[in-house]
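Give me structure tokens for this 243-residue protein.
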Amino acid sequence: MNRMVLVLMGMVGVPLPTMAACLDLSTQSTVSVTGELSRSIFPGPPNFEDVRSGDTPEPAYILSLDTPFCVTGDDFVDDGTTIDRIQIIDETDVLMKLVGRSVEVSGADLFGAHTGHHHAPLLMTVTSVTSLQHPADAASANTTVEAFYLALEIGDGAAAAKNVIPEKRGKGPLSAKALSDFYGNLKRSLKLLGVSPLSPNRFRAHYTFETKNGRVCNGSSVLTTKQVGSLNLISTIKSETGC
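Here you go.
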């Protein structure tokens, strides 16, 4: 569903900009775009280099666009620059549950990046957002994955392991002891950023945490669930980011 609908001065139906007719940021009031939403932790003040060196962690929502487009009319972006990512400013806390999903975001007040706090070529403030994924048949298994990570947020390996298939609860990395030993001894506790269905029994989870030695993980994993009796339980977890 690759599409971008532009709304110019409140009028719907403006054609998609081309390289010959880029989006003019000096006159554009609102825009609607589609893409995959992510949330990352960037280094902030004082040096904007590395949170492990004392820089303040700055979380930011980034929309990777389905359809990149070019822009003109901004003091901080060269005319004709192609935009493939937008940092979404969320003043109403509506984006958290949609991390990892394909979404349509409508926003206003577009401007080019020009400070260390800006982490994509273009920024805008969200006015509305709609998920483009509606796998209703995955709803019950989705709650299992959410419960697993919410238990890890408080380092409760026993509660997390209850969401795992029985043969993997007793020993190994998904056992109650292993989960408690790791997630119960973090420098900064795990925070679940979102769970998105990939199919009825596959899900992508996004999360962040900091280990005892100061390693910051902005991670994602793909989890597979299996129905055991009337229960949906986690059978495998594959990290996409190494943490």
